[in-house]
Design goal:
Number of strands: 14
InterPro entries: AmiC (IPR049745), AMIN_dom (IPR021731), MurNAc-LAA_cat (IPR002508), N-acetylmuramoyl_amidase_3 (IPR050695)
EC number: 3.5.1.28
Family: Belongs to the N-acetylmuramoyl-L-alanine amidase 3 family.
CATH superfamily of the largest domain: Zn-dependent exopeptidases
Shape: globular
Number of domains: 2
Order of helices and strands: HEEEEHEEEEHHEHEHEEHHHEEHH
Subcellular location: Periplasm
Strand content: 15-25%
Catalytic activity: Hydrolyzes the link between N-acetylmuramoyl residues and L-amino acid residues in certain cell-wall glycopeptides
Length: 416
C-alpha cells in the first residue's frame, strides 16, 4: 500500500510538472505567435501613414540612419510572412515622403522595416488597441520636417502634429485676422468637412460603397460651386483620402476664421429601410432623438478607428465657452433649417426638423456648425443614388442654396 501511495503521488507530481511545462510552452508560443495580418499605406500631401495590423500588440524599437535618411523599425516576436513581404510593393512612386521600403527577417525573432525617405521627415510611431473591425495596429506617421523658423508650412499639419503630442490647446497658432463685414467688405469663409478618410472608411453600403469616398466627391462639387460665388472663400478639412482627427478639423476651422462649418456625411443605420436626408446641430444637453444619439456615437468613434496617439478633450474648455456656444447652437439650428429645406427639394427628408446630438466635430464654440447626412448609405436605393454624379451635384447645389438663404436672411456668422 505505501508503494501504491508513493507511485500515485509521483504520477500526480509528474502530471503537474507536465501541465506546468505545457502552460509555459503555450505562453511562449502565444508571445511568439503574433503575426501581421494586414498592411496599409496612406500617402498624401500632408503626411504619409503606414499601418501594420496584427493578432497581438506589436513591440517595436525605432531609430534613424543617415546618407540616405532612413527610418528603421525593429518589430519583436514576429516572423516575416507574405503580408509583410508585400509592404514594399504598396509604396507609390508619387509618395511625397517615401522613396522605398524594405522589410526582412533581421534575426530569428525580429522583423526589420527600413523606410528610405525622399525628404527630411519627422516620424511618429504609436500603437492602437482593437476597435471596430480592426485588430491591434502599429502606426508609422511621416511628417515633413519643420522649416528654418521651426514652424510647419501647412497649418493643418502643424495642428495634426500638435494634436498627436497632446498640445493642441497650448500651441494653437494665432487666428488669421479678417476685418470687415462678411460677404460685403470681405469674403464669407466656408469650411467644408468631408467626413472620415484614410484608415477610417466611415459607413459601407451593401455594395461596398464607402462613405469617405462619396462625401469627398460631394464636398469637391460644393467647393467648386462656392468658388464661383463672388463673395465667398472655401476651405476643406481634407481634400484627399487621409485621416484627420475630429478636433483638428474644428481647430483648422477656427484657425482660418471660418464663418460657417459644414460636415458632410452619408451614414448607416441598423435598419436598412431608413432613408432620407438629415441635418444635425450640436446639443450640449443630450440628443433630441435616439437616432441622433446613435449617429453621434458612430461619428465620434472616428478618432478611435482612424487612429490618433492621444485622446482627451483639452482643446475645448466648455466651462469658458458655454455662453458663446449657446448662442452659436441657436445660429446653427437656423442655418441647418435653411439647408434642410433646400435638401428636401431634391431628396426625401428623414426628419423635417434639425436634429441635435453631441457630435464632436460640431464643437467649435463660436462658429455656426452643421452636420449634413446626405442620405443613408445603408439603404440600397440611396447607396445607388449616392454614387451618381447627378445626385451628388443636386446635394451640393442644395447646400449652397441653404448657405445663400441663411446669409440673405441676415443669419449670424462666427462670433469672435
Amino acid at each position: 500500500m505505501p508503494d501504491e501511495q508513493h507511485n500515485s503521488r509521483r504520477r500526480l507530481l509528474l502530471q503537474g510538472v507536465a501541465a506546468s511545462w505545457l502552460l509555459s510552452v503555450t505562453r511562449v508560443g502565444a508571445a511568439a505567435s503574433s503575426h501581421v495580418v494586414a498592411v496599409r499605406v496612406w500617402p498624401s500631401s500632408t503626411y504619409t501613414r503606414i499601418t501594420l495590423e496584427s493578432s497581438q500588440p506589436l513591440k517595436y524599437k525605432q531609430f534613424m540612419l543617415q546618407d540616405p535618411q532612413r527610418v528603421v523599425v525593429d518589430i519583436e516576436d514576429v516572423q516575416l510572412n507574405s503580408v509583410l513581404k508585400g509592404l514594399g510593393e504598396k509604396i507609390n512612386a508619387s509618395d511625397p515622403y517615401i522613396q522605398r521600403l524594405r522589410v526582412g527577417q533581421f534575426n530569428k525573432s525580429t522583423v526589420r522595416l527600413v523606410v528610405e525617405l525622399k525628404q527630411t521627415s519627422a516620424p511618429h510611431l504609436f500603437t492602437l488597441p482593437p476597435v471596430a473591425e480592426f485588430r491591434h495596429r502599429l502606426v508609422v506617421d511621416l511628417y515633413p520636417f519643420k522649416n528654418s523658423s521651426g514652424e510647419q508650412d501647412d497649418p493643418l499639419l502643424a495642428l495634426l502634429e500638435d494634436y498627436n503630442r497632446g498640445d493642441v490647446a497650448r500651441t494653437l497658432p494665432p487666428e488669421k485676422k479678417k476685418d470687415g463685414k462678411a460677404g460685403h467688405e470681405r469674403p464669407l469663409v466656408i469650411m467644408l468637412d468631408p467626413g472620415h478618410g484614410g484608415e477610417d472608411p466611415g459607413a459601407i453600403g451593401k455594395y461596398k460603397t464607402r462613405e469617405k469616398d462619396v462625401v469627398l466627391q460631394i464636398a469637391r462639387r460644393l467647393q467648386k460651386l462656392i468658388k464661383q460665388q463672388p463673395n465667398m472663400t472655401v476651405y476643406m478639412t481634407r481634400n484627399e483620402d487621409i485621416f484627420i482627427p475630429l478636433k483638428v478639423r474644428v481647430a483648422k476651422a477656427r484657425k482660418l476664421r471660418a464663418d460657417l462649418f459644414i460636415s458632410i456625411h452619408a451614414d448607416a443605420f441598423t435598419n436598412r429601410a431608413a432613408h432620407g436626408s438629415s441635418v444635425f446641430a450640436l446639443s450640449t444637453k443630450g440628443a433630441t432623438s435616439a437616432a441622433a444619439r446613435f449617429l453621434a456615437q458612430t461619428q465620434n468613434e472616428s478618432d478611435s478607428i482612424g487612429g490618433v496617439s492621444k485622446s482627451g478633450d483639452r482643446y475645448l474648455d466648455h466651462t469658458l465657452f458655454d455662453l458663446v456656444q449657446t448662442a452659436t447652437v441657436t445660429d446653427s439650428l437656423k442655418f441647418g433649417k435653411e439647408v434642410l429645406t433646400r435638401m428636401g427639394r431634391v431628396n426625401h427628408l428623414h426628419k423635417h426638423k434639425v436634429d441635435q446630438a453631441g457630435f464632436a466635430v460640431l464643437k467649435a464654440p463660436d462658429i455656426p456648425s452643421i452636420l449634413v447626412e446626405t442620405a443613408f448609405i445603408s439603404n440600397v436605393n440611396e447607396e445607388r443614388k449616392l454614387k451618381t454624379s447627378h445626385f451628388q451635384q443636386q446635394i451640393a447645389e442644395s447646400i449652397l442654396a441653404g448657405i445663400n438663404a441663411y446669409f440673405a436672411e441676415g443669419g449670424m456668422l462666427a462670433r469672435r
